[in-house]
């Protein structure tokens, strides 16, 4: 049980770290996100396909509260295979009003040959 709690804390720190430095990010929030420190500040994340106002149709995002983790999930289609998908993640600290941006590159591969015995 203790190991699972530590793993969850590490995952939260990693997600907060993912929002760290971007071309327009900076300041104390970036430092906080880079160090992986967990704070009690409410942080919300917004996601979009780079250069577009929304995510690809196959990709979903959920964050229940500003104090909870954000989750990206979805199933790309055959048309997306071989095309890198760049997702912009923007973090907003709702207490200090600081922002940070990070690009997440998703490389989509074919499932053929993935399940070799």
From TrEMBL:
<feature type="region of interest" description="Disordered">
    <location>
        <begin position="1"/>
        <end position="21"/>
    </location>
</feature>
<dbReference type="InterPro" id="IPR015919">
    <property type="entry name" value="Cadherin-like_sf"/>
</dbReference>
<dbReference type="Pfam" id="PF05510">
    <property type="entry name" value="Sarcoglycan_2"/>
</dbReference>
<dbReference type="InterPro" id="IPR048346">
    <property type="entry name" value="Sarcoglycan_N"/>
</dbReference>
<dbReference type="GO" id="GO:0005509">
    <property type="term" value="F:calcium ion binding"/>
</dbReference>
<feature type="domain" description="Sarcoglycan alpha/epsilon N-terminal">
    <location>
        <begin position="37"/>
        <end position="110"/>
    </location>
</feature>
<dbReference type="InterPro" id="IPR008908">
    <property type="entry name" value="Sarcoglycan_alpha/epsilon"/>
</dbReference>
<keyword id="KW-0472">Membrane</keyword>
<dbReference type="GO" id="GO:0016012">
    <property type="term" value="C:sarcoglycan complex"/>
</dbReference>
<protein>
    <recommendedName>
        <fullName>Sarcoglycan alpha/epsilon N-terminal domain-containing protein</fullName>
    </recommendedName>
</protein>
């Amino acid at each position: 049980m203790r190991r699972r709690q530590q793993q969850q804390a590490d995952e939260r720190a990693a997600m907060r770290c993912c929002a760290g430095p971007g071309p327009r990010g900076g300041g104390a929030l970036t430092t906080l996100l880079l160090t992986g420190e967990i704070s009690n500040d409410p942080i919300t994340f917004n996601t979009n396909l780079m250069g577009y106002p929304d995510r690809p149709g196959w990709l979903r995002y959920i964050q229940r509260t500003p104090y909870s983790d954000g989750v990206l999930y979805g199933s790309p289609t055959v048309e997306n295979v071989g095309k890198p998908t760049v997702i912009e993640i923007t973090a907003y600290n709702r207490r200090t009003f600081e922002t940070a941006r990070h690009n997440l590159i998703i490389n989509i591969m074919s499932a053929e040959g993935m399940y070799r015995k």
